[in-house]
């Protein structure tokens, strides 16, 4: 009874779908979170007869074949990289990216991770760091006597000391990838490059295509909770329908076994 195994693949697919939706809803308030979307493909087909083969009648062919599909499988969990809305925070060290770029983050092992979460802080040494304490790449140091910090749209970090004198403490860089959906998530709002993403291209917020930065703003999650709830209901109904198919197939097997 192939219907049972076919429906089982449908239940597994909807279970994956619900897990992805649950993660989206859980991260609805996560800064710069990009929602995920489960994608599926049909499995192999078993052919009883192929379209176009000759029939018993001379010179005629079958216009339609007979193929039975064997179910579905998860093909990918794609990251939807649409930009979320920008929310004003008023915090001098909150920086949002308007465009495709990513901030670089220096990791303890010497590698560079990438993030769109611009909720930066100052370390005890005056470095601009992420919420986890990792320094922004390249390093930007704010002097201890700085009275004010300004980050303009081109990424320049300008500090003002107690006497009102201004100086440039550094500049934020942005990174682009040919296939940003191919980045590998490592948690903590960070990503690392992968063979699918391609190598990073480094540039400045003022360079074409990199976007620019806005001080005092943070990018919100692009999760639409209403949309996710709608998809959750659809996945639940599909899961129930697949379970009904298994029940029907089981009843049919019982009927066949009871034949005298």
Automatic annotation (TrEMBL):
Keyword Lipoprotein on entry: no
Name recorded for this polypeptide: Flagellar basal-body rod protein FlgG
Chain spans, region Disordered: 192-212
NCBIfam families: FlgEFG_subfam (TIGR03506), flgG_G_neg (TIGR02488)
Compartment(s): Bacterial flagellum basal body
Keywords, sorted A to Z: Bacterial flagellum, Cell projection, Cilium, Flagellum
Cross-referenced PANTHER family: FLAGELLAR BASAL-BODY ROD PROTEIN FLGG, FLAGELLAR PROTEIN
């Amino acid at each position: 009874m192939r219907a049972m195994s076919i429906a089982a693949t449908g239940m597994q697919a909807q279970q994956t779908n619900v897990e992805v939706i649950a993660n989206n809803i859980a991260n609805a308030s996560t800064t710069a979170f990009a929602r995920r979307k489960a994608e599926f493909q049909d499995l192999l087909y078993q052919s009883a007869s192929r379209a176009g083969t000759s029939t018993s009648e001379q010179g005629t062919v079958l216009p339609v074949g007979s193929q039975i599909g064997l179910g579905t499988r998860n093909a990918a969990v794609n990251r939807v990289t649409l930009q979320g809305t920008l929310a004003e925070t008023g915090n001098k060290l909150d920086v949002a990216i308007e465009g495709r770029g990513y901030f670089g983050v220096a990791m303890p092992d010497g590698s560079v991770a990438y993030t769109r979460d611009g909720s930066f802080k100052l370390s005890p040494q005056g470095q601009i760091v992420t919420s986890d304490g990792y320094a922004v790449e390249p390093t930007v140091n704010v002097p201890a006597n700085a009275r004010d910090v300004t980050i303009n749209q081109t990424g320049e970090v300008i500090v003002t000391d107690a006497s009102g004198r201004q100086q440039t403490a550094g500049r934020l860089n942005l990174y682009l990838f040919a296939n940003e959906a191919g980045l590998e998530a490592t948690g903590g709002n960070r990503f690392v490059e992968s063979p699918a993403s391609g190598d990073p291209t480094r540039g400045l917020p003022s360079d074409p295509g990199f976007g620019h930065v806005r001080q005092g703003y943070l990018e919100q999650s692009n999760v639409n909770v209403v949309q996710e709830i709608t998809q959750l209901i659809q996945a639940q109904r599909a899961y129930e329908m697949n379970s009904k198919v298994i029940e029907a197939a089981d009843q049919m097997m019982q009927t066949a076994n009871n034949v005298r």
